[in-house]
Amino acid sequence: MSAKRIGPRKHSKRKHAKIPGEMPSRDDILAFVADNPGRAGKREVARHFGIVGGARIHLKKMLKDLADEGLIEKRHKRLIRSGDLPPVFVAHMTARDRDGELLGVPVDWDDEAGDPPQILVLTVKGKGPQPGLGDRALIRLTEAETGPDAAYAARIIKLLERKQGAVLGIVRKRERDLPPYLEPIDRKQREIDIDPGELKEAEDGDLVSVQVTRSGRYGHPRGAVVERFGSMMSEKAVSEIALHQHGIPHVFPAGVEAEAERAEAITSLGQREDWRQVPLITIDPPDAKDHDDAVFAEPDSGPDNYGGHIVYVAIADVAHYVRPGTALDREALLRGNSVYFPDRVIPMLPERISNNLCSLRDKEDRPAMAVRMVFSKSGRKLSHTFHRVMMRSAAKLSYAQAQKAMDGVTDAQTETLVDGVLKPLWMAYECLKTGREAREPLELDLPERKIKLKEDGTVDHVYVPERLDAHKLIEEFMIQANVSAAETLEAKKSPLLYRIHDASTPEKLESLKEFLATIDIKLPASGGMRPAVFNAILEMVKDAPHAHLVNEVVLRSQAQAEYAPQNIGHFGLNLRRYAHFTSPIRRYADLIAHRGLIKALGLGGDGLPDGIEAKLDVIGTDISAAERRAMLAERDTIDRLIALWMADRVGTEFKARIAGVVKSGLFVRLDDSGADGFIPASTLGLDYFRYDEGSHALIGDKTGETYQLGDRVDVRLIEAAPFAGALRFEMISLGRHAGNSGRRKPVRRSGVRASASKMKSKRGKKLR
Fold first, then answer.
1. Phi then psi for 224, rounded to 5 degrees?
2. Spatial contact of 731 and 715, defined as CB atoms under 8 Å apart
3. Of these four, 26, 354, 368, 678, which has the most CB atoms within 10 Å of its CB?
4. Where are the domains of the chain?
């Protein structure tokens, strides 16, 4: 396949000579072939022009002359003009366009003809084959808009070949002269023999990626180590498994890195407002590498707002560096968000952008998008304005550092900030807290576990961090900034992605109602359901033994928050309109909001591109899926690290709480570490335990012995499966209503093993 032109041919309905016996001109033949690429052979040309008898000999000669001159080509007895693509052919997926759509090139292409044309490969998510980069597919050309990145558009007919990428697994060495082999993480893949000279210093038990170098119908394929991640006991190795299994992009293409390196820091003020004298500060975790938000507050001196406050929130101006349609933008959309592991971050943007140019480092000038919000003394927002500014962070504080300073324990950095910066921030927060309490968002009390690692990347201990006022202050300031962004964009009729959270479904509410009835709490009619109703229930059980249980069940009754251009409000936060704006370094949705504000308010030429409205539905769906993918990868990594940490504690007894109940058994969570595991129902005792959905309990048929969600129990660790991130326990405590409160004798039954999928703990969804 060769070409002398690249680009879609606009076919017109041309009239060709059809007088029987009259030979068509060369231009007539070329026009007919162009209008029927890959569908016209000699017979079709003759039929179309009414050429019969001896005239066919002359037609044959004309077609041969056209071919010899390179004007037409013959493929499978069909004619195409040189430079045209046939209607059906095999393409290789090589890249993505600025919207994240796949681009392919013809596999059968003559390099002497120049670069192959780019083809936009159209797919419908969830329907038909879904190719990825490196795959090959049979495609059919179609008439559709291609955009500036492609010359043709096509649809998938059949996926022919998946890219043979590197395989992730554990190195296992054999005795004698047998070669080492790879034990794949994915159990569906075959073992791969590794050439001894291609181990790259990998040791037995190391996690590595292996590229297959030779494969055949018989015997194991052979391969070479591409990358060594080290011992399976390390966090890096464990997080690498999560990246691989969930398909999370984690290596920036060379073009993206190059584009990031070419970006230059802003040195002049230009059209930006000068906020460098405003003492904005960043408050983040102590190990944070990027700082994308800064805050400041002061009392409102206006005579008509006595007791009110002015809050300033400045956010890194990522939109200045990441422009629509660039390689950086396409990669950010593909990733959707950053992914956070215990000691590692997979960023949405390269380090040059996220940790340097867009990080609000203290004492350095940085461009920012800022919002100035005015609140009454009751915490009600009176007004807000957005600004494109140049700022200079006055200080970089950790949450604990800021909290200690407000509690009277200052250090060399905070002692000069208390009166002029920190106290005004806390005064403003007290004001906003009054407004939050009046708004009554959903107030769940479910602490999140964290992992502390040693220097070698293995687990030191698991803990639940203290929830400080410093955390709540930043969270409330960010919520109000997000609300302001949504209000402004909506008022300006700008396209935007809302952060939406739907109310609970009738089915989930009915299940919650049945559960609450078991503890003598009535759930009001669903017609009047608001977050305040759930909060009242949570307050009723605040100091009760089953408080944690009720929080868990209320959480499970909630919907999943997501992104969409259609607004339905945010149920959990009890807000009518809400859009993420405050973290464009780590969330693509926030970058959309920044660009919308820039265009709507005339703050520059790097705002939302025209026509974005038609793409927001797909973008919202994709980044919502990327968010869920990241949450699963983060959860799986924590589960695997804890399973590795617990592997040498098999046989140890623990205090625990029942965190989940299903037909097949109980999920338990350990008190001291928050580690989760599974107890198969078949190991509970000689009784047969039935699942009661309404009460979230397993109940013995004969004894009435009951294990309910939230119960405190004693358990013993029986098995740790690090690959699966799963722990299996046996129950030591007797269930409630069993006639006594002693310890049970464990039931040993053959063949009792919980599958990895059942052993996985169910965890709550993030609502905000």
1. -130, 145
2. yes
3. 368
4. 88-161, 167-231, 264-487, 503-558, 650-759
